[in-house]
Amino acid sequence: MNTKWSYMTFTKSLLMTIFLMLFIAPFIIILMNSFKAKTEIISNPLSLPNSLKLTNYIEAFERMDYVYAFANSLTITVCSVLLIALFSSMTAHYFVRNKSKFNMYAFFLMVASMIIPFQAIMIPLVKIYGSLELLNSKWALVYMYVGFGSSLAVFIYHGFIKSIPKELEEAALIDGCSRTQTFFKIVFPILMPTTVTVFILNVLWIWNDFLLPFLVLITPTERTLPLATYSFYGTYSAEYGLVMAGLVLTIFPVILVYFFAQKYIIQGVMQGSIK
Amino acid sequence: MITDKGFLKRFRTGILFTAPTLFAFTTVMIVPFLYGLYLTFTNWDGIATTLTYVGFENYRSVFEDKAFWISFLLTLKYVIASVMLINVVAFLLAYTLTSGLKGQKFFRAGFFIPNLIGGILLGLVWQFIFSNLMVFIGKQLNLSFIENSWLVDPDKALGAMVIVTVWQFAGYMMIIYIAGLMSVPNDILEAASIDGANKWVTMRAMILPMIVPSIIICVFLSLQRTFMVYDVNLSLTAGGPYGSTELISMHVFRKAFLSRDYGVGQAEAFVLFLLVATITFLQVYFSKKKEVEA
């Protein structure tokens, strides 16, 4: 029994290792080729690079306006996520603690709206905000992310706030806190694990989103990282080494962050899906 | 009930707590949704300042637009293949990675990686894999099925889309299945094995019925995401070769923004929304009936 068991485990581990290597091979291939010249890539895309030349990187970095794109992505993601978490937690708290008809309908409407795909409203969205001349700005995009992201965030917070005993807040109110103070001093800190979940789900979505910024941001200097990489790839698609370096510049910072925050990200996805 | 004193003060707190969310939600989701509904009854071309009411003309055009239905059937094919493969692969990974392997946390983290990166970039990465690396390997080893790029072959390009999609989402669904599998109480599995149930029976009679909620979530999420896919489609095949992989999202996008047929485009977007909502509703409704309690 024992030897058979360990034999099974060994086979499983081996299979998993091989499968995982195949699974992440595309990223490794891109990384390897990003150091090569075009001729080297064509003659053998599987070979290790002759030397760790950084010329591709320097050129890609300049030509895709990497600094701008990265800064844009970072600003948009951070601002949107902070605002979503702040506003949604306040709204969810208010909905749970004040069960008026209006609040119940509003909550129901938000939950129901989650099945509407973005494609069903992108055309009127562009028309409305275009005619108000609100397109082509980061801040309009942040505003839209707050609108699109709040449904799920309110829903997640709502589920968690229901489990917080009301007595805790009543005690604070009796001690002279206002509702706003009670929320920020007592409730918000308790919500921290949920806030981490909301952060993670929204960062994954907003950082990688393509279609919405593609429709909203037109000027090259306002572009986010996925947009900049896509247009860079389109312009230089024949320059293999260069586009590989561009892809690595966009992909690997994320993997680096994941390396440190991996535990929270996996947990966040788990929590977000259970609710 | 906790309440502040005075109506005005209560009203002010209410505004402070709910107005930012509800305002953004209404102006970004609800207003465009309703306005979109209105647009489907007009013949707006994107430039004209006046809209003419055309009744159900646009909806008739949707049902007469052959390309829309061809694209829808193509999407259906892609969705069925992807959803099945995503869930099978994700479940097998989750099952193996909850069986107490050494380093299973590391494996889980590894399989999740594609989900950190946007579809547009994943499509670009795989473009290189399909049209350079695989062709190179095919020529070296004389493997005829990959000697030519799958992305220029109308019969294989959709298969390439399915592979990338499964690769992209399997890790995400795996995490959800892991959460489900970990909530199956160990004592009932032990009881089953004492009673002499083999692995296959345990799986079919105990584990699968108990993780029905996870299956519902995963099938729902993968249905939604694959039906609405746009970015991988754009960056991997751009609808080509010869329109053989133009999935429904891309069709709607092109109808509206390239052919400037906004009324019809929006009507198609709504028809699509209703179709997908119906399919996902039926899926959840019928599989809910299979749920059991431990």
Total strand count of chain B, please?
Answer: 0
Overall geometry of chain B: globular
What is the total domain count of chain B?
A: 1
Residue windows where pLDDT falls under 50 for at least 5 positions of chain A:
none
Q: Helical proportion of chain B?
A: over 70%
Overall shape of chain A: it is: globular
* The CATH homology group name of the largest domain in chain A: MetI-like
How many H/I helices of chain B? Answer: 12
Q: Helix and strand string of chain A, N-terminal first? A: HHHHHHHHHHHHH
The whole-angstrom Rg of chain A is: 24 Å
For the record, give the distance between the C-alpha atoms at the N and C termini of chain A, rounded to a whole number: 41 Å
| Total discrete domains of chain A | 2
The helix-and-strand class of chain B reads mainly alpha
Give the % helix of chain A: over 70%
Distance between the termini of chain B: 36 Å
Sheet bearing the most strands of chain A, described?
none
Quickly name the level 1 CATH class of chain B. Mainly Alpha
CATH class of the largest domain in chain A: Mainly Alpha
What does this molecule look like?
The complex is a heterodimer of chains A (about 280) and B (about 290). Chain A is an all-alpha fold. Chain A is built from 13 helices and no strands. Chain A has 2 domains: about 1-55, no CATH class; about 65-235, Orthogonal Bundle (MetI-like fold), CATH 1.10.3720.10. Chain A has helices at about 1-35, 40-45, 55-65, 65-95, 100-115, 120-130, 140-160, 165-175, 180-190, 190-210, 210-215, 225-235, 240-275. In chain A, helix 1 crosses helix 13 and helix 10 packs antiparallel against helix 13 (about 240-275). Chain B is globular and about 75 Å long. The mean pLDDT of chain B is about 90. Chains A and B meet through helix 1, helix 4, helix 5, helix 6 and helix 7 of A and helix 1, helix 4, helix 5, helix 6 and helix 9 of B.
